[in-house]
From TrEMBL:
GO molecular function, one term: transmembrane transporter activity
Keyword presence, Transmembrane helix: yes
Protein name: MFS transporter
Domain Major facilitator superfamily (MFS) profile: 29-478
PROSITE patterns noted in UniProt: MFS
Subcellular localization: Cell membrane
Membrane spanning residue stretches: 29-53, 65-83, 95-112, 152-173, 185-205, 240-262, 283-307, 327-345, 357-374, 386-408, 420-439, 451-472
Native species: Streptomyces spiralis
Length: 505
């Protein structure tokens, strides 16, 4: 009889001693990787609360300034799978250091400039930081024994959620007053990135596994074209118009590019993304769940912030400032996520990642349903937001564990990278939906309250789908683990089983 851990790939199972995998990670490994994950979420949300300040200081239009978020999104989507694959091939430590060095360079460039094009260029470089999270998950798999993996994944995932709250609060505190200066926020990004770079250099072992092989540049180019053509109209739809020729043309071209990319990847001996792995049932549904998780997370961030800043004269809302919205309503949710991630790690170990993901998703359904039905008091919004924070933490902790059980070690980073891209797409869709349903009132008038209710209900439905995917979609089927074999497992003595999800390993 197997335990939940053995069923889900987080325990070597009968016949495998934990000592087969020799732990190399010291005590500082998990905090260092957690700090790196915090950089990821900070770069994604740091400038969102102060776009108005940047627009005023640079005398730019709202459409031009919105490229500061679009550029980072596109950069993250393009770089993450490629850098994840390079980490699997050439070693995670050097790629992690390279990614963080690029992030530091982008942060310094953005902090020093008063030019919008250079600021956008800096944000493009910062977007590469998104690759840190999948690389961190791959390092944990390579360096820690199975018994420590769930807790370590929970910690790293928790700091990913916490970074969003820290970014919001930091941006608010550093730009308060009569003469706010956005440069201070970018220097904060620089400081955190440098600290993370030093921590990775000190605590991540140089012996992280590398599978070798060549880089599939054709696949990388095809994926870049596909993602840019997909994300560009999603993120710019409110500016271009959802039925404009630019929007519809880009979406159609994205579909054509995706078809060509898949065919190219299937013909490659060492593809950027192994399609056979991507279409495995657990991986496929994990990526769909990642998309929905990104949608729900960004929906909470935008919707709650907008809701609480609506003046009470509109018949709802609390008239909070941007800083008040961050400190009072969003930071508590991030702190709860940090704590809940530790619980999620324990649950992954005891009950398995699918059950943990399902429990978190149900919590998210309840949280958003309460927000839809009852957002007339601060206590209700705060409490419901905390439930959503728990759900997000459970999702971040469980999805990497689902992928861990479904892919071989040499594809860990790229599999998590694709999942990160799915979350980015979900975030872009959430931003576009909210901009369409909530932020289009115009003329300085707040949107009608039912628009918030509708968006909260949609986010609740997203978590309901995640729960269904976890329950019925992510179960491994026969043949899912054919990548493992005895010769491969024996090729690296002392490294532990190649595929901890396979009983044969």
């Amino acid at each position: 009889m197997t335990t939940p851990l053995q069923d889900h790939g987080l325990n070597p199972g009968p016949g495998h001693s934990p000592t087969l995998r020799r732990p190399r990670g010291g005590r500082g490994l998990v905090p260092a990787l957690g700090l790196g994950a915090m950089v990821v979420s900070m770069m994604q949300t740091l400038l969102v609360p102060i776009l108005g300040t940047i627009q005023r200081d640079l005398h730019a239009s709202a459409a031009d300034v919105s490229w500061l978020t679009t550029a980072t999104l596109l950069s993250a989507a393009v770089c993450t799978p490629l850098l994840g694959r390079m980490g699997d091939q050439y070693g995670r430590r050097p790629v992690l250091l390279g990614v963080l060095a690029v992030t530091v360079a982008g942060s310094v460039l953005a902090a020093l400039t008063d030019s919008l094009p250079l600021l956008i260029a800096g944000r493009v470089l910062q977007g590469a930081s998104t690759a840190v999270f999948p690389l961190a998950q791959a390092v944990l798999r390579a360096e820690l024994p199975a018994r420590r993996l769930p807790a370590a994944m929970g910690t790293v995932s928790g700091t990913l959620a916490f970074g969003t709250g820290l970014a919001l609060v930091g941006a608010g505190l550093l730009t308060r007053g009569d003469a706010p200066d956005y440069h201070r926020v970018l220097w904060l990004a620089t400081a955190v990135s440098v600290l993370s770079l030093v921590a990775i250099a000190v605590y991540v072992p140089a012996s992280s596994a590398a599978s070798g092989g060549h880089t599939d540049w054709r696949g990388a180019a095809g994926l870049t074209v596909t993602l840019v053509l997909l994300l560009l109209p999603i993120s710019r739809g409110t500016v271009w118009g959802w039925t404009s020729g630019w929007t519809l043309g880009c979406l159609a071209a994205s579909g054509a590019a995706a078809t060509i990319w898949v065919r190219v990847e299937q013909s490659m001996p060492d593809p950027l993304v192994d399609m056979r792995v991507l279409v495995r049932r657990p991986v496929f549904f994990a990526n769909l769940a990642g998309l929905l998780l990104g949608f729900a997370m960004f929906s909470q961030f935008i919707l709650v912030s907008a809701l609480v800043q609506v003046p009470p004269s509109a018949g709802y809302g609390f008239g909070a400032s941007a800083l008040g919205a961050s400190l009072q309503y969003l930071l508590p949710s991030s702190l709860v996520s940090l704590v809940a991630a530790q619980l999620a790690g324990t649950l992954v170990r005891r009950t398995g990642p699918r059950q943990t993901l399902a429990m978190g998703a149900v919590t998210g359904v309840v949280g958003f349903a309460l927000l839809a039905a009852w957002h007339s008091s601060s206590a209700a919004v705060l409490g419901s937001g905390m439930l959503v924070g728990v759900a997000i933490a459970f999702g971040f902790a469980a999805l990497p564990a689902v992928l861990l059980a479904a892919v071989p070690p040499e594809q860990t980073a790229v599999a998590n990278g694709v999942n990160s891209v799915a979350r980015s797409v979900g975030s872009a869709v959430a931003s576009a939906l909210v901009a369409t349903l909530v932020a289009t009132a115009g003329q300085g008038h707040p949107p009608a309250e039912p628009r918030f209710t509708t968006c909260f209900a949609i986010a609740s439905a997203a978590f309901a789908l995640i729960a269904l995917f976890a329950r019925f979609g992510m179960a491994a089927t026969p043949g899912d683990h054919r990548h493992a074999g005895a010769p491969k497992a024996a090729s690296k003595p002392g490294a532990g089983p190649v595929c901890p999800a396979c009983p044969a390993c």
